[in-house]
Write a structure and sequence with these properties.
heterodimer, A: Rossmann fold, B: three-stranded antiparallel beta sheet, two-stranded parallel sheet, 12 helices
């Protein structure tokens, strides 16, 4: 249901997924469960990261959102419309890039977008704007089939933003882009989020996600593992200290007696202590009081990547 | 829907396929028209020439035969084979034997090679040669079902390589082209993956399918009719300078226009059906193979196994509608069957429309339910 907060702004989620399940029936062999009982809300406004290892069900979920694939069970709502029934009412406000860019190779980039624009009753000036925004103006009149992977990706993003949509769904938008292109893409997405639009972005470039997303959801094997603001997701994972010290095994015992969790590191004479950087002084003092002195100390701050790997490896191997 | 239809037509306008087809057809028509023009044999005998020659041979035959019989009758033949004696004795008179020996059809191994192009017979197989063909003016001329021509009661075999049924015969080839056009309308989208992009902008799958069906039909109709108009245009020089356009009046053009238009409608129907098959198979090849395979196999199956089905068989109805003919139903058993009238052009149109509606309905159900991934 749509509800409004103070100031009359709509506060219902841009995307609401309840108990989503998608099973692909194989002609031979067992059916494949791509998504299993997924519940997820994507708040309006801002940039929301949608993460998961390969085969987690991200793209299938996105396809269900956009009506390309019919869910086996569950419900999906986009901008307060039930999907797929309300798709025609909402798609004029939704722009999407799913997996890889798909345009006619024999048509120019501009023509491909103009055909889309005419289907959406948009003006050709919108095409020019979109091409300019993704930096493809110079190659707009060249055939799509002659584009590099990065250019194809840019054109696909141009197609997604062509409608100036309220909701942007981007599946691997930086795929094939060079570092400058990745930066431009991040800034474009961030601009969208800051101007009031909602962006759902799925990517394996976790450093980029960490820089541009306000919130993230991590799924694995078709199920939600965690979701929330980036800072909250990372707050439960402290990072670590890598200590270089003689007699590491005795050092581990000293730290354990003081309540620290420590283990041997991969390199000789190193131990890893699961604490954040602010505990470095306490670790050092504890060892020193026991007559053990460090040869080196490195802070490994928690990153989205480390959190992601930790959570998804737990999901894959709970033991 | 009109907006989507315009979009699909605009998309087809920018594709290479229709232009490659039109260019190929244009070149083929020009070559065909040129070959027809230059293949004229000014020294070929006219029906009158050949008729006179055969009459002379018949006269020689009769003269010899009469002399032979009269000599036998007067005992002047000498030693004769007993069988031959009995043969000679079976006739009452020399004339009777001459009638048996010297039938004109025994001398018609001379082909009547008349390559002059008579525009009149362009589109109607089996039409009577009307008085419009100058050399035959005033003669009682008609064509037998075997293809032989009767001139004043005398039978001649005739080569008619570039006359009757040209438009109909070329149409059969163009129907294959129409199937390719229809199948590629959706097959190319599945191959490029652009069907997904389309649905992200217009999620109402029924409308998308309807627009594509309409565009496929319109494109096939236009290309088919343009090709036939080019064909007629390519043949006109032959008619004007090497043959005859006598009798080409408004009725002729109206009739020819009808054949061209009906052929275009058949092309549109085939394009839609090939499109529908390709929606199911998700590629161009599937649609083309199924349509060609059906056309190759179905008439034989309906004759051998499903004779009662013939009035409903698609290729029979398509052909009848295109050429303005009729569909027959089989009566008899085994190989001793004949075809009797079942229905004409209107009945064929109804049956074709039913096939098209069923094909599109199946495609719509499949397209609506299918996952795009």
């Amino acid at each position: 249901m749509e509800s409004r907060g103070s100031g009359g702004r709509i506060t219902t989620p841009a995307i609401e997924i309840r108990n989503l399940k998608k099973v692909y029936k194989g002609l031979r062999g067992r059916p494949t469960v791509a998504v299993e009982s997924l519940d997820l809300d994507v708040p309006r406004g801002g940039v929301f990261g949608f993460l998961g290892p390969n085969g987690a069900g991200k793209t299938t979920t996105i396809r269900c959102l956009l009506g390309l694939v019919m869910p086996t069970e569950g419900s999906v709502r986009l901008l307060d419309q039930d999907i797929p029934g309300g798709l025609s009412d909402v798609m004029s406000n939704v722009g999407a890039l799913v997996e890889s860019p798909k345009f006619f190779p024999g048509f120019s980039g501009r023509l491909n977008l103009e055909l889309l624009a005419s289907s959406g009753q948009l003006d050709t000036s919108d095409v020019t704007r979109a091409l300019d925004e993704v930096g493809l103006t110079d190659r707009a009149n060249d055939k799509f089939g002659t584009y590099s992977l990065g250019m194809k990706q840019r054109l696909a993003v141009a197609g997604a933003i062509l409608k100036s949509p309220e909701l942007l769904v981007l599946d691997e938008p930086a795929n094939g882009l060079d570092p400058a292109g990745i930066k431009d893409m991040r800034e474009l997405i961030r601009r969208y989020g800051d101007s009031g639009g909602t962006v759902l972005v799925s990517s394996h470039q976790l450093s980029e996600i960490q820089l541009m997303c306000d919130a993230v959801a991590i799924i694995s094997r078709g199920k939600l593992i965690t979701a929330g603001p980036v800072s909250e997701v990372m707050a439960n994972h402290e990072g670590s200290l890598v200590v270089v010290i003689d007699d590491p095994i005795d050092a581990i015992g000293t730290l354990a007696a003081a309540g620290f969790v420590a283990r041997l590191g991969g390199d000789p004479d190193t131990i890893v202590v699961d604490v954040n950087e602010f505990e470095a002084a306490n670790v050092t003092r504890t060892l020193a009081l026991d007559g053990r002195y460090l040869r080196g100390l490195t802070v490994h701050a928690a990153s989205l990547e480390s959190v992601f790997l930790e959570l998804t490896s737990e999901e894959e191997d709970p033991a | 829907m009109i907006r989507l239809l315009r979009l699909e037509l605009r998309r087809m306008w920018h594709r290479r396929l229709p232009w490659v087809l039109l260019l190929g057809i244009t070149v083929a028509m020009i070559i065909g028209g040129g070959v027809t023009f230059v293949s004229h044999d000014a020294t070929a005998p006219t029906p009158g020439d050949v008729s006179a020659e055969i009459e002379a041979q018949v006269a020689d035959c009769r003269r010899f035969t009469t002399e032979e019989w009269n000599a036998w009758d007067q005992g002047e033949l000498g030693d004769t084979d007993p069988e031959y004696e009995r043969y000679l004795g079976s006739f009452d008179s020399a004339d009777a034997m001459a009638d048996d020996q010297c039938n004109p059809r025994y001398f018609d191994d001379e082909f009547l090679n008349d390559p002059r192009f008579c525009l009149i017979s362009l589109y109607e197989p089996g039409v009577e040669f009307r008085e419009g063909c100058p050399d035959l003016e005033g003669a009682n001329v008609y064509e037998r079902p075997s293809g032989a021509i009767m001139v004043d009661g005398t039978e001649y075999r005739a080569l008619r390589s570039n006359t009757s049924g040209t438009v109909s015969n070329v149409s059969l080839f163009l129907f294959v082209v129409a199937s390719v056009i229809g199948a590629s309308f959706i097959g190319a989208e599945y191959k490029a993956g652009t069907i997904e992009t389309t649905l992200l902008w217009e999620p109402r799958r029924g409308r998308v399918l309807g627009a594509k069906v309409g565009a496929a039909a319109i494109t096939a109709l236009i290309i088919h009719m343009a090709a036939l108009v080019l064909l007629v245009a390519a043949m006109v020089p032959s008619a004007v300078w090497q043959g005859s356009t006598a009798g080409v009046d408004s009725a002729f053009w109206f009739g020819l226009g009808g054949v061209v238009l009906r052929g275009g409608v058949v092309a549109a129907a085939l394009a839609v059906m090939a499109f529908s098959v390709s929606v199911v198979t998700r590629n161009t090849v599937g649609g083309v193979v199924v349509m060609l395979g059906y056309g190759a196999v179905s008439p034989t199956i309906s004759f051998l196994l499903l004779r009662s089905f013939r009035p409903f068989e698609l290729t029979e109805n398509l052909t009848a509608f295109a050429v303005g003919g009729e569909v027959g139903r089989f009566v008899g058993s085994g190989f001793d069957v004949t075809s009797v009238y079942s229905h004409g052009v209107t009945g064929a149109a109804v049956r074709i429309a039913a096939y098209v509606v069923i094909a599109v309905a199946i495609a719509l159900v499949v397209f609506r339910r299918r996952d795009i991934d």
